[in-house]
Predict the 3D structure of the following.
Amino acid sequence: MTDTTAAVAAKAPAKKGGGVGLNIAIGVSAVLVAAGLVLWAMQLSGGMVQTAMRNLDSWGLYITGFMFFVGLSAGGLIISSVPKAFGLSGFGGISKVAVMTSIAATVAAIGLVVVDMGQPFRVWELFVYSNLGSPLMWDIIVLMVYLILSCVYLWAQVQAEKGKVGHTALRVISVVALVTAVLVHSVTAWIFGLQQGREMWHTALLAPWFVSSALVCGTGLVMCAAAALRAAGYLKWDQANLVKLAKLLAVFLLVDLYFFGCDLLTAGFPAGEGLAVVQMLVSGPLAPFFWGEVVLSAAAIVICVVPALRTTPLMVVAGLCAIAAIFCKRAQLLVGGFQIPNIDLAAAMTPFTVTNWEGNMAQAYAGMVYWPTPLEFGVALGVTALGFLVFFLGLKLLPLKPADQE
Amino acid sequence: MADKKLVMLVDTKRCIACNSCAVACKIENNLPKNIWWNRIMTVGGGNLDSPEGEYPNLKMHNVTVACQHCENPACVKVCPVGATYKDPETGVVRQDYDKCIGCRMCMSACPYTGVRSFNWEEPKYSLAHAVGDADAPEHQKHVVEKCTFCYQRISKGETPACMDLCPARARHWGDLDDPNSDVSRAIAGRSYEHLLDEKGTKPGVYYLV
Ligand code: SF4
């Protein structure tokens, strides 16, 4: 960037202030990670009966969080690699920070799959008995490639700045990283979208829609992270770049909502089974999440498109709204998949799902079929803290500042 | 393709919803507390054993729901480690407790609500000692289980336990590819239904109607 003298002047105090603050942040995240580990050990020894997941809603907060973090991760990498891959002007010096957010989010995503597993010590079987036809297997492979590639990409950027990696090489890596980022998204969507057993998930739109959601929350995350780092004096960053990201965010949000609208219309119009899905979202038990997503998205769009509203604090709010909106989407998708049973018959239900001896499915599904227990919140918080820890450690140990601000 | 096509017929005209098959299954496989691989559901009013309609025009019948042993099983496709798999010889969808990593992909994939159970805790039993077949695999914490057509019995040439105790003789079991088998004779001339045919799983359980 142009104003290097100011950057140099800002550097000394920034390092000091950032140093203490950063150390505290690292300490706090580490404590939360440790607490999460303890809770996870409790979950494993006492049994997953301590979670709110049961046979009829066999996934919960962990897999919701997994989808969410995969989304966050792809966004940051796409923001960083698109300008490089296509030779466009970028977003001003935040490329490496954006990739660091990707790495951190990928680590959290992998962590959430691990805590969701009943038998995490059998994880090695994935590589010995791999069923390559399983979408989960595809995702595990792609996620690992993606994590390694993000690290390589970050390393290549650092080397390029030192003149050790050529421009073309960096561009090639950017393109590969971009393709992998899109793949990670699609494959995560296919874990759900290829399941013929769940009415709400089984739609071809799911993969593109996951990509658009990733762009929304990834952009939101990069906006918040970059603005925060600027406020903390870690790096200098042009306001014009923040505005550019905000405008992009508005576009991504509109695309995401458009996909949502298309999907709801296609599901609901024939007035068949899909109508139940639409009703569940719009006026049923999942309505708070549905309307939450719509309202938060709308608020973020308004902030991003009205020039007078594009102040730094409001744009950060828009970024946070976008992230929260996508979280709502993930939650409704996950719970929604389980909310509507395929066999809706009065049945000899196990007490695992209905405690009332006269209970039947209709009663079981009267409210939301799933709400996490404190243990699940605790473990998920621990994994989230792990993501933050990775990010903060990256800030501390790696040269993530723009080269001209070092 | 499997060498045989082992299927089960359930005659809904004969079933009296006595739950004997559910209990036989529970005992034979020493199922833990709260786990039922086979359940009898009422097609009728909103509650168990309740008819639909107004007296005297009442209607009710029953379907027994357990693993459908599909020809095109959704669960087998998605299991990342092959812990749920189609037995090449018999076509039965089997479950390997030692292999299962507890990811529950199969539970999301299976369209038949509630036929797959996860042991959410260390298995607990109502009786102090184990019951049923000594060859039935031992239950494990944090893995998925379900009906196996009593694999331990059929591999010895016996029939699944649920059939043996059925007082109404509503169940038939055998190789549909063999024209002289019990099932082939029972299905001849009868019309049948599958559960959730539209999901394309080609179930191996036939409901005679
Ligand atoms: S829970 Fe077990 S059987 Fe089911 S998909 Fe996962 S590893 Fe396979």
In short: Chain B touches chain A through 55 residues (CB under 8 Å). Residues B 78-79, 81, 83-84, 100-106, 144 surround iron/sulfur cluster (CB under 6 Å). Helices of chain B lie at 20-28, 74-78, 105-109, 151-154, 161-164, 182-187. The beta strands of chain B are 6-11, 39-43, 61-65, 84-86, 93-95, 117-118, 144-145, 171-175, 192-193, 205-208.
